[in-house]
Amino acid sequence: MLFFILKRLSQSILVMAIVSAVSFSLFNFVGDPVNNMVGQDATREQRVEIRQQLGLDDPVLTQYTRFLGNMLQGDFGLSYRIKRPVDELIFERLPATLELVFVSAIIALLVGITMGVYTGIRRKSWASRAILSISLVGVSLPTFIIGIALIYIFAVHLRWLPSSGRSGTVDLGWWKTSLLTVDGWRAIILPAITLSLFQLTLILRLVRAEMLEVMQTDFIKFARARGLSERAINFRHALRNTLVPVITIIGINIGGLIAFSVITETVFQWPGTGLMFIQAVDFVDVPIMAAYLVFVALLFVLINLVVDILYFVVDPRIRLGD
Amino acid sequence: MTDLLKIDGLDVEFPTRRGTVKAARGVSLTVSPGEVLGLVGESGAGKSTIGNAIIDLLEAPGRVSAGSILFEGEELRGRNEAEMRRIRGDRIGMIFQDPQTSLNPLMTVGAQLVETIEKTNDLSATKAEERAIELLEQVGITEAKARLQAYPHQFSGGMRQRVVIALALAGDPDLIIADEPTTALDVSIQAQILDLIKQLCRQRELGVIIVTHDIGVIANIADRVAVMYRGEVVETGDVAQILGAPEHEYTKSLIAAVPRADRKLDRFSSVDYIEGGTKPFQRIDIQTHWLGKSLHDRRSGAAIEVENLGLSFVLQKSVLKRNRKMLQAVDDVTFTVAEGETFGLVGESGSGKSTVARLIAGLYRPDAGNIRVIGQDVVSSPRSAAAREARRALQMIFQDPYSSLNSRMRVLDIVAEPIRFYKLTSSEAETRKIVGDLLDHVGLGAKAALRYPHEFSGGQRQRISIARALASRPRILICDEPTSALDVSVQATILNLLKDLQQELGLTMLFISHDLPVVRQMCDRIAVMRHGRICEVSETETLFSAPEHEYSRHLLDLMPRMDLLGSARA
Amino acid sequence: MQQDHPMTRWERFKDNDIVWSFLHSPGAIVAAAITSIAILACLFAPLIAPFDPFDPSQISLWDGKLPPAWIEGGQPQYLLGTDNQGRDMLSTILYGGRLSILVGLAAVCLGMVLGVTLGVISGYVGGVTDAVIMRIADVQLTIPGILLAILINGIGRAFLPLELRQEFAIYVVIFAIGLTDWPQFARVARGATMVEANKEYVQAARIIGLPGWRIMLRHILPNTLRPVLVIATIGLALAIIAEATLSFLGQGIPPTTPSLGTLIRVGNEYLFSGLWWITFFPAIALVVLVFAVNLLGDWMRDALNPKLR
Fold first, then answer.
1. Structural domains counted in chain A
2. Helix, strand or coil, per DSSP, at residue B312
3. pLDDT of residue C14
4. pLDDT by residue for chain C (309 residues), tens digit each?
5. Which one of B57, B90, B108 has the shortest CB-CB distance to A224?
6. Contact yes or no for B394 and C201 at CB 8 A
7. Closest residue in chain B to residue C17, using alpha carbons only
8. How far is B321 from chain A (nearest CA, A)?
């Protein structure tokens, strides 16, 4: 067990090391940092001074160590474009993104798992076939098209909900939330549905596939032969065995939500970190790109760790060793 | 005595896209309380179908199309799902083949027992737990109370099968259907499980149906036997009569094909009733034929020399050496196989016998020791030309006929691969001619060359494997359980073919098997292996008449009681 | 199955379970039909399209923002209307779809070749090689594809001098998507390889003395293609979506030679002013295309998984 945790932990550290190396090389190799700092028309002397200030003439390894040190303190320097500390910018926009991802994840998990179980159990029913066909359309709909469609229907045509932005926020001092007011909910509901739809269909289809797979196993057949009730077989035996692979995918899917929040935020002009990242890419604003990368990788690593711990809870074969 | 179960004229069909397959035709059987009925037949005979049909768990799209199933005087056909559920577990219990997969891996054994007991007996939770402990004790599990909290993966295979039996007994059924209950288990555990089933049957006045392909199991446990062939029951009778004086032609050839443990015969009895399609062994003039070319540089001496061979596998990785769990798969193994000899390696699963074969074949690298093939060291410099040349003289026949052929290649390309790769012929036309000869030689006919492996049965595939091995013009043939995946009748024909080839080509053979009667028929000398070590090496007849090592005696004792067979063949 | 004559290739083809399942699955036939029509229509866009949207002499700003032909104000020669610059929507969609399909195919091929090669080697050779390749794949898989594609794409563009960015945008996009795709292929190919490598026919080939590359190429590769094909089909749908997404975000194909995603991006700006057709038709084209490919992949996955049949 200790070995298992250590292995996962070392893998996480490896991921972070590689990601930090990538974001470090972003700083060094993408564009000319000096140009980005002072603009094209600075004098030669100014450039030399800035190079020395930034330590750009030091050996690469020294620079990397310094970068790592700064990174661990959350210091990614100043944004080239906005000229403000990057960590400050990220923390400002973090609540918007996390709330969006949170609401989407709840929708995707609740609806996805319920429907997946239903279609897995009632394989032949009319409703299952309908859900399954619709879900295939769902997998084929790019997130941004869902967003545009929802905006057109609910904001432009019906005028029920706002088309963009994050209104009705309440400042809790350390966190600006939109989950406490009706306005806030009205603003978040369209982006959240948009973001969740794709992952929802993926989860649905996966849970169904896993249910069908488990239903083929010998122990289900043996449970049937013992005359256990349909409910006991479906939920106590089949669903629990489905959970192990499903948990993995749910971890990946929450990662997917964070990634696709970039697109959703762009469509809805939602003031989160994703929108900031896309704008940074447009202007090659390296400090923000690098920080976002490290930040997202950190989130993923944390999610994967939670997933591993869940494995432990669910599967005695891992918990107790073989 | 009244019948517990009476099946009359049962038909089971499986509609497929190539037409309806009748898995059972007009099957009639009876089982009385306290009686073990053996339902025996080879693969595809429809024996498992009968068991599934009784409790209405046929795999889709199978269905019972005619006949009646009377259980304690009541008709079971046409019951709805809710009624069947009350019969399953409560009145008819089922035991499946593989204890590894029969239990839910995520629930404790106790929870699975309690759940079943509660369903069938309507007891309170504490009462149900007491009953669970009782059941586990009855099937011979010690410290039952503590074991309730354990998960299936914490039990050994034999123990798991005991848990499965306890689960089948939980509803206090009157009939138990056991579908190949010991096939996935080692011989020594097999005997214990069969004893347990027999004892439960007598104590509780249970009716038991044992579905099996293994005549040994039947001889050990059954009171009466029904023999199935292609969906029909061809013969029913008392166990002594079926094994000792079979009447139906099929039963006769089936019994004749069972390898004898009591004495060595020259050849296995031929079983024309079953594999009628196979052509007889075709003699070719080995002195002039391509296949005989390797014979000319023959020396007498040792074909395989193995010295202090050792190999261990890592079971559990760890950074720290002391935390690593290692399995010593092969431990200080030494033996020599003389040219032209058939040398047997026997042992239970996990004894390391297959690993030794793979070490000699060069599929694994040993940690310790040395291997010489025809005098050539193949361990210290495995990539040298001499070592490769020596290895080419050594070919292997594998256990599983379904995975040992590449399903994407034609038989021609499979057999011709070594010929083409080593350019053993001067032209493609010659290669094709030789492949045709080889296929003729192993009894398949040259026309087989243009087909794909999936068009052949298990026995025929094994013949293709043999042809492929011969195409390298080997001097040594390693046979790793070559017939253990085959039906007993097919086994006899393949073993006869191997014997013929060996005689004709003067092959040296290393024969690996867990099946002592087969080994007795095939081998000149035998090494008995256990836990990666060799217990003893003896002449075959010495081993069977006067085994030296304690473990050899134990293995011999476990051999199925076949004395019933004697009269039929004497 | 014991005929005297071996079956001909065609008989064997028809007898094949997968072909049989295809011929008996209406969804799969429809999907295959839509996919092939879409691919053909797009590939032959220059022959089919009524206008050449890249030929300035055929475009007139006077014809801009015309609605589809069946709506009042529409003109018969512009069946699906025109965009803000007066280009015929039908023609731009055909040309755009062509670009989307080509980029998708190229990206999937890149990912597949890279992934399958590495996966088969990883699975067959094992040991340190396997560990290194799979760790890299694992690390990459922790980061969702689309994010990585945006990043690779962004970096790729940053490296190019400004004047070349438009010209090379399409290759950068292919590279970005292909490079994010490979771990999927590598994982599947490695898994299949490990299953196959343990099978006895591979051991038999080793005992015959065949060299590793020959075993991988002749024995293992053909036997891993089924699962790879499923992944490739689903991967094609995902790659088309990824390209569209990148272009929609303004990170992909530039508006001068628009793909479907670019068209939707451009049209989106006119959505609020009621010019819905500039967004609607490219979006429908994209969704139908992706849906057909997904339907095909879905059927294939079921057909190739014998357990569920």
1. 1
2. strand
3. 62
4. 344 455 566 666 666 667 777 777 777 888 888 888 888 887 787 777 777 777 767 666 667 677 776 777 767 777 777 777 777 888 888 888 888 888 999 999 999 999 999 999 999 988 888 888 888 887 787 777 788 888 777 777 777 777 777 778 888 888 888 888 899 899 889 988 988 888 889 999 998 888 889 999 889 998 888 888 888 888 899 899 889 988 888 887 888 788 888 888 888 888 777 777 888 888 888 888 888 888 888 888 777 765 443
5. B57
6. no
7. B17
8. 13
Point out the residue among C207, C208, C223 whose CB comes nearest to the CB of B421: C208
3-state SS class at B14: strand
Cβ–Cβ contact B79 with A under 8 A: no
| Chain B neighbors of A222, CB-CB under 8 A | 94, 96, 102-103, 164, 167
For chain B, the average pLDDT equals: 85
CATH of the domain at B364: 3.40.50.300
Question: What three-state secondary structure class fits B142?
Answer: coil
In a domain, B238, yes or no: yes
Q: Is residue A196 part of a domain?
A: yes
> DSSP E strands: which ranges in B32-105?
36-40, 63-71, 74-75, 92-95
Q: Residues near B388 by Cβ (< 8 Å), separated by ≥ 6?
A: C209
Distance from CA of B171 to the nearest CA of A (A): 8
User: Does A45 reside within a domain?
Assistant: no
Nearest to C54 by CA among C83, C95, C101: C95
A203 within some domain: yes
Predicted confidence (pLDDT) per residue in B158-209, tens digit: 888 889 999 998 888 999 999 988 887 887 788 888 888 999 899 889 999 9
Domains defined along chain C, listed by start: 17-304 (1.10.3720.10)
> Smallest Cβ distance to A218: which of B101, B107, B171?
B101
Burial class from Cβ neighbours inside 10 Å (0-12, 13-18, 19+) for residue A57 reads exposed
Tell me if B106 and A322 make a contact (CB, 8 A cut-off): no
Using one digit for the tens of pLDDT, what is the confidence trace for A169-207? 777 777 777 777 777 888 888 899 999 998 898 888 888
Indicate the residue of C135, C144, C245 with minimum beta-carbon distance to A142. C245
CB contact under 8 A, C6 and B363: no
Taking CB atoms and an 8 Å limit, are A222 and B89 in contact across chains? no
The residue type found at B96 is: F
Contact A196, A107 (CB under 8 A): yes
Q: What is the CATH number of the domain that holds A198?
A: 1.10.3720.10
DSSP states of B286-355: TTTSGGGGGGGG---SEEEEEEEEEEEEEEE--SSGGG-EEEEEEEEEEEEEETT-EEEEE--TTSSHHH
* Partner-chain contact C203 B388, CB within 8 Å: no
Q: Which of A278-287, B81-90, C2-11 has the highest mean pLDDT?
A: B81-90
Per CB-CB distance under 8 Å, the chain C contacts of B17 are 20
Distance linking the first and last C-alpha atoms of chain C: 21
Per the CB < 8 A criterion, the answer to whether C176 and C156 are in contact is yes
Question: Residue A50 and residue A64: Cα distance in Å, rounded?
Answer: 18
Give the residue from chain C lying closest to B389, CA to CA: C209
Confidence at residue B277, expressed as pLDDT on a 0 to 100 scale: 46
Interface test with C, best of A281, A298, A308 (most C CBs within 10 A): A281
The neighbours of chain B, by the rule of 3 or more Cβ pairs under 8 Å, are A, C
C-alpha span between C154 and C252 (Å, rounded): 9
Q: Cβ of A142 and C244 within 8 Å?
A: yes
3-class secondary-structure state, position B64 = strand
Q: Which of C16, C23, C124, C200 to mutate to test the interface with B (most CBs of B within 10 A)?
A: C200
- Domain of residue A253: give its range: 86-284
> How many contacts does A have with B, using Cβ atoms within 8 A?
88
Looking at beta carbons, which residues of chain A come within 8 Å of B154? 320
Q: Is residue A138 part of a domain?
A: yes
